[in-house]
Amino acid sequence: MIPVSTRRTIFSTLLLTFLIFTPLASTVSAVDHPNPPSQPAQGPGGAERSYPGMQSASFGNRPTGYRIFEPLDASGNLPAKPLPLVIFLHGFIAVDPVFYGDWIEHITRGGAIVVFPFYQTINPLTLRPSEYLANSNTAVADALVQLAEPGHA
Questions:
Q1: What's the whole-model pTM score?
Q2: How far apart are CA 118 and CA 140, in angstroms?
Q3: Is the dihedral of CA 54, 60, 62, 64 positive or negative?
Q4: How far apart are CA 68 and CA 113, in angstroms?
Q5: Is the bond into 3 cis (omega within 30 degrees of 0)?
Q6: Mean pLDDT of 107-122
Q7: What's the CA gap between 21 and 7, in Å, rounded?
């Protein structure tokens, strides 16, 4: 059995520890953490979208192929006015536009045409990085020709 004096010492130490550190713990947890700004309703990065829909189509084969994303109006038609063009270059190995779907949709529905060059093969180990720029240039040049054809915004 533990002597009474030892139990009192242990109890006093625990009580003192509790009394000292409990207020500190509540102070730390009560600190307000910074929050990012909320999304603006309009303007760059805003929640308001100019176009309710979009369409996409792939052209060519990897590594010089590409995918074009175009906005659609409420009637499902392509806009009649000229739109800005965004060349969306993917990250290394992340060669599928699905990885960037929300981002591409945000840009497209905001009123821009997005060209997504597939400058790598599915297996990037079979393609030298020195070829990426030439493949991207070929894809973008072909996409510009494609966009000049009827049936594109």
A1: 0.71
A2: 10
A3: negative
A4: 7
A5: no
A6: 92
A7: 21
